[in-house]
Amino acid sequence: MNVSTTLLAKLQYKLENIRNLCILAHVDHGKTTLSDHLIGSNGLIHPRMMGELRYLDSREDEQARGITMKSSSISLLYVPGASTRSDGPRSVLDEEKLSKGFLVNLIDSPGHVDFCSEVSTAARLSDGALIIVDAVEGVCVQTHAVLRQAWQEKVRPCLVINKIDRLATEIQLTPGEAALRFHQIVTHCNMIWSGFESEQFMREADSLLAQPITTTTNSSSEAESGGADDSSSGGMNGQGYGHTDSKSNISPPSSSSSSSAAAGNAAGNAAAEQDMFDPVRGNVCFGSAADGWAFRLEQFAEMYAEKLSCKKEALVKVLWGDYQFNPKDKSVTRCKRRVAGGPPPKTLFVQFALEPIWKAYGSLDSGAEEAAAVLGAIVRGRGLAVPKKTLEQSDLKQALRAVFRAWLPLAEAVLGMAVQQLPSPCAAAPTRIPHLFAESNEFVASSSATHQLARQVVLSQALAGLDSVEDEGEGEEGEEGDEGKKGECGEKEDENTANENENDKNRENKRSNTTSRNEGNSEDEAAYRDPIQRKACLLKRYRSALHASSSAVDAPLVIYISKMVAVPASLVPRATADPDSGSRFFTLPSPESESTVSRRGGGGGGGGGGAEDEKEVFLAFGRVFSGVARPGTRVHVLSTAYDPLDPTSHRQTVVLGSLFMMMGRALERLDCVPAGCVLAVAGLDACILKNATLASCPLLPPMTPMKFQAAPIVKVAVEPVAPQDMLALEKGLRLLNRADPFVEVGVLATGEHVLGAAGEVHLETCVKDLKERFAKVEILVSPPLVAFRESIHCEMEGEE
Asked: Where is the Tr-type G domain (predicted)?
């Protein structure tokens, strides 16, 4: 199914049909192999190369080591049922793709613990996650770590049990033993997830017990002294940026707080009673990414429901339980209790799902005739469009793969599960937005009149300075931003002039309406002039847009940049200027800028120029959470240390450059990107080091910093072989620090340049990038530096 970028760009505006998901797993559990088959469903990989190409591993060392080191993103189209059609996915028309298709923004992440920072960047931009578990190895250390990462980021997970073929061919388990192992894996994952929830519950209980008991008199006096100030002075819902529900006060707007709270508690209790992973609910998938097949329970329930004269929904419920099928009267009964040490019972799941698969794999060892007979029976029984010559080929494994890919296509099972079980951006926003703004720094409401007065003075001064900041930003955007919009979108000059005139009229109407409203009602005028109330109104607007993931015209723009990506300049598409539109395009950094790295020389003793394909540029990889991003829009870059009460510190203004859709190894230029979609932005390398929040108004607090699973523990000292290359080394270290979200660079008191990494593999990757991509000089690396500290130990303290 070939997909055009134009079609994917149109689907970006169908918010309900967007799924942002990442693939998380332990190392070598099959993430990238599974990604190959999902990408191949869009016609980007030849069927024979699926699982072998490792499409999203674009680095040479990734291909050499066979592991993923950097997270990569790609946008895919999924049309339900397209893979199982008799005519194939190519029979889907463009109209059907646009009306029934889903846009899946897939982010593949590393599984090695040294690159856990890439997992954090992937989870921050996603609403759902595919947790891959090797059926042979089971739940491993990094499986536990990525489950915690998904839980911390409020990402809804689905489970994929991979490499089932190894159970039949290598370990040679029986179908009953394999089913028992699947139950153990699902139970183990549910226990881990339940442990996180119990941990949060205990933490909340401890925090409540640690709070001082306040009397009714103090509460009433606080309400009288704080009044409307407390209700409008804090976070995104007007109650402060503190925690509610152990997360934040950025809660969805509602007309009845009591009823919504009761409904939320009921929903939370109901969700807590059921397991997170349940094959009956459809969020667990079984398959083999290497052979390109996968299934869910509902697929086999649909196959056998007509034969058993029962409903598919009822059959799904008994497929995973301890039920067996009686062929005599075609009835389903509960299995007898298993005898200790005896064989596992032959359940419906074993009989209907696993035995046909085990029989097909077992036929490979019985000869070509037996394999052709078994595979041929599957083809005839399921009505599969598999050529006869495919079954008669000498490579029996390829014949089996062809049959299983037609019978149980992996993309249909996995993407179908993602579409049904994972939320859209607008559905995930009410849950994720409170978490993303949970730790925003803001004054906490106080009952002291002195604190309230000081708080109002500070807020008034902050908003007074904010007015000049906003006016300056609007003026600059009017001169530069609108031109950039015209340049990227390719609109005609007269259309832009008409739009500008219409915007001017709208601004005048808003001002006149505000003036008339204030003149007619003295209370409204006082509320509008009150900086606290004004701030509450602006934050309410942000809150509504973020919770709805709104792409409306008046929605404020909010983008989160999770990392900076260094890509070859030859892969960045350039737009051609339109002389009729008077457009201005945002080009890549010049060869002289620090953010542009030449492979033939990086400064100092490294040499100069080089061809265009030997340069690298930095793109910001992130996601639009509200509004519509367009080239030329002026935004505020808010670092993690930014405080809305002090809009002059830790804040910069910048104009968005060209926007791109990341397609693995390629980039596709876009005119605009609405809320709910991931993107790459050019022109931000001068103001963003690793990650940041972009907002159209500096009143918004920055998003919470990402949480990493580990810290840089391996540190080495680096120095150039030739002393004249010291400047090139310093420049290369700065560029490496920007390109890697987890690396640490610094200078000791002795003058040594220190490089910190998460582990040996991460350190080797950083040193290789420093030599070949950023510094372009020969460097010397010291043995690992071990910090030595000593303290005084008292025996009495030890005994106590």
From this structure: 16-328
The reply to whether 632 and 564 lie within a common domain is yes
Closest to 758 measured CA to CA, from 725, 712, 697: 712
First to last CA, the chain: 69
Sign of the torsion angle spanned by Cα atoms 764, 768, 774, 776: positive
Q: Residue 640 is which amino acid?
A: T
Measure the CA–CA gap between 581 and 487, rounded to whole angstroms: 7
pLDDT digits (tens, 9 = 90+) for 262-280: 444 444 454 556 889 999 9
Using one digit for the tens of pLDDT, what is the confidence trace for 101-157?
999 999 999 888 888 889 999 999 999 999 999 999 999 999 999 999 999 999 999
Q: Give the tokens for residue 327.
A: 């062929």
DSSP assignments along 446-471, one per residue: -S-HHHHHHHHHHHHHHHHHHHHHHH
Q: In this predicted model, what pLDDT tens digit does every residue of 594-633 receive, in sequence order?
A: 455 554 444 444 444 444 446 788 999 999 999 999 999 9
Check pLDDT > 60 for residue 402: yes
Residue among 438, 445, 446 nearest 243 (CA): 438
With both helix axes pointing from N to C terminus, report the angle between 531-548 and 522-529 in degrees, rounded to the nearest 10.
80
CA gap 739, 284 in Å, rounded: 35
* H helices present in 53-102, as ranges: 60-65, 94-100
The enclosing H or E element of 114 equals: none
Report which of 595, 594, 592 is spatially closest to residue 610, judged by C-alpha positions. 592
Does one domain contain both 606 and 493?
yes
300 exposure class (CB count in 10 Å sphere: 0-12, 13-18, 19+): buried
Can you give the residue range of the structural domain that contains 755?
Answer: 714-781
Q: With respect to residue 246, please indicate whether it lies within any of the assigned structural domains.
A: no
Among 393, 427, 461, where does a domain finish?
427
Amino acid present at 264: G
Q: For residue 104, what are the CA distances in angstroms to 20, 128, 546, 663?
A: 6, 11, 21, 12
